[in-house]
Specification:
It is built from seven helices and two strands. The protein is mainly α and 190 residues long. The protein has a domain of 131 residues. Strands 1-2 form a two-stranded antiparallel ribbon. Helix 2 packs across helix 7 and helix 5 packs antiparallel against helix 6. The relative contact order is 0.09.
Length: 190
C-alpha cells in the first residue's frame, strides 16, 4: 500500500514538473545582481495586458476578432508582397502596353490562385482584410485599384463593396484599431 501511494505521488510530481513548459522567448535573463552573498537574476518578460471584459458578449466579440485577424492577416501580407513584386516588375517594363498586359496577367494569376479561398471569407473578415491591406501596403484598396485598374473599375468595386456594407477606402488607424494592432503583435503575425 505504501509503495502504491509513493508511486502515485511521484508520478503526480513528475507530471507537474514536466508539464510546465516555458516558451523560449517568454523571459530573458538580463543580468545577475549580487547582494549580501545572494545571487539574484534580473529577468525581462514579454509585455502582456490583462484585459477584463464587462460582459460575455464583449469577450466573444474579442475572440471572434482574434480568429478573424489570424485568418485574414496572411492574405494581407501576401497582398503587400505581391503588390511590391508587381511594382518592381512594372518599373522594369518600358512600354505602357507591356505594363497593362503584365497587370492583367498578374490579376488573372492572383484570381486563379485565391478567388476560391477569398469567397469563403465572411463579411467581417472581408472588411478586416481591407483594413489590413492598408496597414501592410500604406495604400487603401481604393488607391490600389485606381492606380492599376482605373476609375470605372474602382467605382464598380466600390459599389460592389457597398452592397456588403464595406468601404474600399477604409484606412487602418493604429489608435482606433488598437485591438487589431495588439492581436497582430501579441500573436507575432508581423
Amino acid at each position: 500500500m505504501r509503495n502504491t501511494i509513493l508511486t502515485v505521488l511521484l508520478s503526480f510530481i513528475s507530471v507537474a514538473v514536466f508539464s510546465q513548459t516555458k516558451s523560449a522567448d517568454s523571459a530573458v535573463v538580463m543580468r545577475k545582481v549580487y547582494m549580501d552573498g545572494d545571487t539574484f537574476y534580473v529577468y525581462t518578460f514579454d509585455e502582456f495586458i490583462l484585459k477584463e471584459f464587462d460582459s460575455k458578449g464583449e469577450k466573444e466579440a474579442y475572440l471572434k476578432l482574434v480568429r478573424n485577424v489570424k485568418k485574414v492577416m496572411p492574405y494581407a501580407k501576401l497582398a503587400a508582397f505581391r503588390l511590391q513584386m508587381m511594382e518592381d516588375n512594372l518599373n522594369q517594363l518600358t512600354s505602357k502596353r507591356a505594363k497593362k498586359k503584365y497587370i492583367k496577367a498578374t490579376e488573372d494569376a492572383i484570381k486563379d490562385e485565391f478567388i476560391s479561398q477569398l469567397k469563403k471569407l465572411t463579411k467581417s473578415q472581408g472588411k478586416l482584410l481591407i483594413k489590413l491591406i492598408h496597414r501592410e501596403t500604406g495604400n487603401t484598396t481604393y488607391e490600389i485599384l485606381k492606380k492599376y485598374r482605373g476609375s470605372s473599375s474602382t467605382m464598380f468595386y466600390g459599389l460592389w463593396a457597398k452592397m456588403y456594407n464595406a468601404d474600399i477606402d477604409t484606412k487602418f488607424d493604429p489608435i482606433e484599431d488598437y485591438q487589431i494592432e495588439y492581436i497582430i503583435k501579441n500573436n507575432k503575425l508581423e
